[in-house]
Specification:
The protein is mainly alpha-helical. It folds into 2 domains: 30 residues, no CATH class; 88 residues, no CATH class. It has 8 helices and no strands. The radius of gyration is 16 Å and the shape is elongated. The termini are far apart.
């Protein structure tokens, strides 16, 4: 049995475990079903926070030139549209694609269940103002 499987067996037995970051990300990406996410202890508010954090990371990757918050929101909205059209269908089908840092952050945001994606510059602007 490999180390990852052993960690999961220990966790299933109720023992505290420290998951490697890659395994934790894979488990969270598999937790797209609300019941699974709830079983993992992720409330809707926590899932929304995970989505928002991923969107903020994407915005930070896109804006490195001191753009205004509104410009950042517009760039992020454009990146979201490109991501949805070009990459999201393939990623949801299970393809393993090379992603840029902002695309990886967007993919993490889209993997969160129960938290609708934010697409409009206005909503993204409101999010960016909160962080």
């Amino acid at each position: 049995m490999n180390a990852a499987a052993q960690l999961l067996m220990n966790a299933a037995a109720g023992q505290p475990v420290h998951l490697p970051p890659e395994l934790a990300r894979k488990l969270l990406s598999a937790a797209n079903d609300g019941a699974v996410a709830a079983c993992l202890g992720l409330t809707l508010a926590q899932r929304i926070r995970v989505r928002n954090d991923a969107l903020m990371q994407a915005a930070q990757e896109l804006v490195t030139d001191g753009a205004t918050t509104w410009q950042a929101a517009q760039r992020l909205a454009q990146a979201v549209r490109r991501f949805e059209a070009a990459l999201l269908p393939a990623l949801q089908a299970g393809q393993d694609l090379p992603l840029t840092p902002h695309e990886s952050a967007l993919w993490r945001a889209y993997q969160v269940s129960g938290a609708r994606p934010l697409r409009s510059p206005r909503k993204l602007y409101s999010l960016l103002l909160l962080y």
